[in-house]
Amino acid sequence: MEKISKFIKTFLLLELLRGMSVTLRNMFSRNITVHFPEEKTPQSHRFRGLHAQRRYPNGEERCIGCKLCEAVCPALAINIEVAEREDGTRRTTRYDIDLTKCIFCGFCEEACPVDAIVETRIFEYHGENCGDLYYTKQMLLAVGDKHEVQIAKDRAADAKYR
Q: CA–CA separation, 72 vs 90, rounded Å?
C-alpha cells in the first residue's frame, strides 16, 4: 500500500505542486523590499557601527588611558599610547582603530569605565584604500562631536539595561 501511495505522489508531482502553491501565494502578497537610499530601516539604539570617542560637556576628552579597550579587543584592532599630563592625570596621545580588523563586537564599549569609546549607528562609511579605514584619535573625536546628540540619546535609552 505504501508503494502505491508513493507511486501516485510521484506520478502526480505533489511536491512540485506544493512548491508552486507557495510561489503563487507569495506572488500576490505585499513586497517588503526596502529602497535603501530613500528609505532607511529602523535601527536599535544598541546598533554597533562606526566607532566614536566622546568628550565631557566642558570639551575635555573622556578617555583616561586605562587601555582596557585595547586589552579586551579580540581582533587586536585598537592601539593606544598614553602619556601623563602636568596635573598628574593620564590621557591618550595616540588612539587608533583599524576598522579592517575590527569585528564590531562591542567589547571595547563595554570595557570602557567612562564611556569614552562608543559604537554609533553610522554604517554608511567606506574606504577606497586600506588606510582610509584606519581611524586616528582626531578622526574618532570628530565623529563623536558630530553625532554626540544621537550618542547621548542612545546611551540614555540603554541606561536601564547596563
A: 20
Unique residue bearing C-alpha cell 508513493: 6
Torsion of CA 151, 154, 155, 159, to 10 degrees: 180
Q: Report the mean per-residue pLDDT for the chain.
A: 90
Reported in sequence order, the residue ranges of 31-114 that DSSP labels E, i.e. its strands, are 51-53, 78-84, 90-98
pTM for the model: 0.77
Distance CA 151, CA 134 (A): 21
Q: How far apart are CA 84 and CA 82, in angstroms?
A: 7
CA separation for the pair 162, 95 (Å, rounded): 25
The string of pLDDT tens digits covering residues 83-139 is 998 888 899 999 999 999 999 999 999 999 999 999 999 998 888 987 899 999 999
